[in-house]
Design a protein that fits this description.
2 copies of one chain form a homodimer.
Chain A: H1 8-17, H2 28-42, E1 47-48, H3 60-71, H4 85-99, E2 108-111, H5 113-125, E3 134-139, H6 143-152, E4 155-160, H7 167-177, E5 182-188, H8 200-213, E6 216-220, E7 251-256, H9 257-260, E8 269-273, H10 275-279, H11 283-289, H12 294-307, H13 312-327, H14 332-352, E9 356-357, E10 361-362, E11 365-366, E12 372-376, H15 382-391, E13 394-395, E14 397-398, E15 409-412, H16 419-439
Parallel strand pairs in A: 1-13, 3-4, 3-5, 5-6, 6-7
Antiparallel strand pairs in A: 2-8, 7-8, 9-12, 10-11, 12-15, 14-15
Chain lengths: ~450, ~450
């Protein structure tokens, strides 16, 4: 006899013991812990859709380079403040190859994952001009991004971008930017959790308005080249990863090794600041820190006092992977297509059981199959949907934790590794439908 | 003919080109850059006394464990939020072995170097109680520590502890703590830059007052077991590294792999929070983050949004080194004694040329020979002394950048590696004396 669904009272007890008062507001790490508890309670595997743990093996190019760096004694030495030379150069070439944008090696700084990149960028942007005290986040978004300004005590504002696609985005951004208080705008493209991708027209609108209102665009490219509707896998050949960098000089790109190279454990990424912004002098920064330029402060003030940089040996790993990708000897995009296949197949299973995509379109085009997507079930609320799915042995996170106003869950396919994971999802969703029949109708 | 001293006008031009208006206020990294420029200008090696780059080779125990972790695929996987199990356990045992304090593995969290530990601790301490908005730093201190609250916008206060040794410290701390605004107190012991070490009596005073006024003591143990006046090298045998943890439950210890294991490049350390403080519930944290305990918030709120933890493979390295040290198979303290020998010899050279120790005593006992010491020359000011030494090919940092009110420089002996470094120091100090004769008298 199936151990699912878990009785409602037992599930409530579990949450109470874990100090979680509302599961729809729980962090990804808390949801992960709930899953572990459910596995211990039932002695059955849970379907893990909650966390973006890379489900593809690391390429030996990265680990070999890292091990070689350790053999050469790099563990002893603080890396140069702006990162090792080869990483800066190879990152610059990689960006040219896949994003078709020119950024000097000088303007590329390694960070402790892109999480640390956005943390330091947001803090710096909040200090460049006393009148600009607010960071604008386009939602839905990565919940940890949303929490950063709260932890840092920085004023912030969000809106659900799905309501403002295309030309509507111009009107909405114009309204927000014209307050004069927005220092920076942050988003992930492709989007986490909805996998929506901005069109060139939308990126142009964002870029033009960023220039007009002197707002810095912080573009998180954690999932670059993973919109598989186009083949973005050929270095130095179009089509390229779309970017706001084509339309403004007011930008910083965050490129992480975690997802594109499955190197999440080593906490290594780069922040690439536009040449113009890097060298821009901010009197308020000079007054406060005795250093004026945006880029020097990012490196020597913010990244330095936060962690004195990032792993020396992992910088060699990331450098080698950037180089191999730009050389065309490591086709990282093809390896990532596996996520698209998993998304396609699991979406079919959700749809078979009556679920619908919550965020479904890029204006007139259906969203692609990638790392994430979002589903809802009839009009069931975030908290009820996630609670009932968890009771049926399916773990995820609720959409409200991503700044979305819609009802549903985020599905991450990275841990759908084997045939049995899809069979199990299908079975558990059958149990879920019955549970809805029993408890909701 | 010697290329030193560099003419005053040429040196001023160099600083102007590097955007440094006052060399005595320059950061360590800036001083390092000045040294590189001087080497390029003169084509002669500079005597590097400015930066604490480990000058001892890394033990293969660390690198082997890290390479093995990479071979086992750990680069792909996010480490557990609180760090890998073995690191937590081995750190707990290491602390028992060398500090003689019991801290549960649960309460030990890895950070991106201790810089990141203090960054997140200071931020958290500033948010636990709206009435306690100030961090107190005992100076002289590590300049980056002093810059952290400025970057984070946190009120902070310092005083030179050398003026308040012994019972005077009680009076001074009582005065500061009784304002009710001090959330936390941070210091390094042994002290950077002065190498003064608190006596047991002083640690007792700090601990008692921390309990009385509910102040959290953030004790940076970057140089633990490096006060070579006592043999602290035997695990589980007295004498142990002195600590405030013997006298209060209100503490967090920061133990870094950078100096004691020469593992600075990999940015790996641990923060060990007292069992009682870890579990203490703070209503203000619960209101703000939905999580109440100090330790859970440190791990899941602060360290998470700052960088999502630290290098997975480096955690295995640190774990293995902690284990070997506690097992007694890796005598890390004996290897570090090399720094003491270098300090002793270079101090003699400074004294031969008329320099004096600035911070010279722990109450009635002379300070030991270790990683740092401080010297002054007659009554020459910070800026003049450092400028003239640099012009003579000796690089260092000025004492005012460490929060000290005294005139002098910090000497770090880590880069005094070979016989020729000592010969060069002797020669250059001879040139310096002549320069003083020519320009000052």
């Amino acid at each position: 006899m199936s151990k699912f669904p878990i009785p409602s009272s037992k599930f409530s007890d579990l949450l109470r013991n874990m100090d979680i008062s509302d599961i729809s507001l729980a962090t990804i790490r808390q949801c992960q812990s709930v899953g572990q508890e459910l596995e211990a309670m039932t002695n059955e595997p849970i379907v893990h859709l909650e966390m973006g743990i890379p489900g593809i093996n690391v390429h030996h190019i990265g680990t070999n380079a890292q091990k070689e760096a350790l053999d050469k004694g790099k563990a002893k030495l603080y890396p140069a403040a702006g990162g090792i030379k080869s990483l800066k150069e190879n990152a610059s070439r990689f960006i040219k190859a896949f994003v078709d944008v020119d950024i000097d090696p000088l303007c590329i700084i390694p960070t402790v994952g892109s999480m640390n990149g956005s943390f330091n960028l947001v803090l710096e942007c909040s200090q460049i001009n006393p009148e600009k005290d607010t960071i604008l986040y386009l939602c839905p978004g990565f919940s940890a991004h949303g929490r950063q300004p709260d932890v840092l005590g920085i004023r912030n504002y969000t809106f659900d971008v799905y309501m403002y696609r295309g030309e509507k985005l111009r009107e909405k951004l114009e309204k927000e930017f014209s307050s004069g208080r927005i220092a920076a705008l942050l988003y992930s493209n492709p989007n986490n959790p909805a996998w929506i991708c901005f069109t060139e027209e939308e990126l142009k609108i964002i870029g033009e308005l960023a220039t007009k209102y002197d707002v810095i665009v912080l573009e998180d490219m954690a999932y670059m080249c993973m919109d598989f509707r186009n083949d973005l896998s050929k270095p130095f050949e179009p089509p390229f990863q779309p970017t706001v960098a084509k339309y403004t000089d007011n930008y910083a790109l965050m490129i992480s090794g975690s997802k594109i190279f499955s190197y999440a454990g080593e906490r290594i990424a780069i922040t690439a600041i536009s040449n113009k912004l890097y060298h821009r002098e901010y009197p308020e920064l000079r007054r406060r820190y005795g250093l004026g330029s945006f880029g020097d402060n990012f490196m020597l003030t913010y990244c330095y006092v936060c962690s004195a940089g990032c792993s020396h040996s992992a910088q060699y790993a990331l450098s080698a992977m950037f180089k191999a990708a730009a050389d065309g000897t490591y086709d990282f995009v093809s390896e990532l297509r596996e996520y698209g296949r998993r998304a396609h197949r699991s979406k079919e299973i959700f749809e078979k059981h009556g679920f619908h995509l919550v965020y479904d379109k890029d204006i007139d085009q259906s969203i692609g199959d990638g790392f994430f997507y979002t589903v809802g079930y009839e009009d069931i609320s975030n908290v009820d949907l996630l609670s009932m799915l968890m009771r049926c042995g399916i773990n995820a996170i609720a959409l409200n934790s991503t700044g979305s106003g819609k009802q549903g869950i985020r599905v991450c396919v990275s841990q759908m590794l084997a045939e049995e994971d899809f069979v199990r999802l299908d079975e558990r969703l059958g149990i879920f439908r019955k549970l809805v029949e029993d408890e909701v109708r």
